[in-house]
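Sanity check

After download, print the first record. It should look like this:
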Amino acid sequence: MRTGVRLGVDVGTVRIGVARSDRDGILATPVETVARDDRAIDRVSSIATELDCIEIYVGLPVSMAGTHTASTRDAISFAQELARQSGFEVRFIDERLTTVSAHAALRTSGKKASHSRSVVDQVAAVMLLQHALDSERARDAVPGTSVADHS
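Expected structure tokens:
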């Protein structure tokens, strides 16, 4: 397992959830929810720089059948621009069901959906990043696919 902080990014149309790993790549934790506006890429890039990340994982929202949707195209566009502007290695992680799982986890903990929208985005980012970390540890290989493969 490589050492270094990784960033997990759950791209939504209104908000972007951001999570980080510890330096040893064991545990993902929430960082913040970024508004999806014209400063979003700069903010995510700044977080990655502040944390001295080795790479950024962006959730790739594909349908349950594995096909691309409008959300998939949006995430790819965001990730490509993030890679171009930030200079960080950006990789995609399949994020099927992370938002659904995040909502379920918050419900189980007693949180109301209306009071936890921004937290849901962070929890989804934690889940996708934790999946990447666990995958790297299990396979001893860099997980996901490079943003360059989706040009």
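If your output differs, re-run the checksum step. Summary of this record's structure: The two ends are 28 Å apart (CA to CA).
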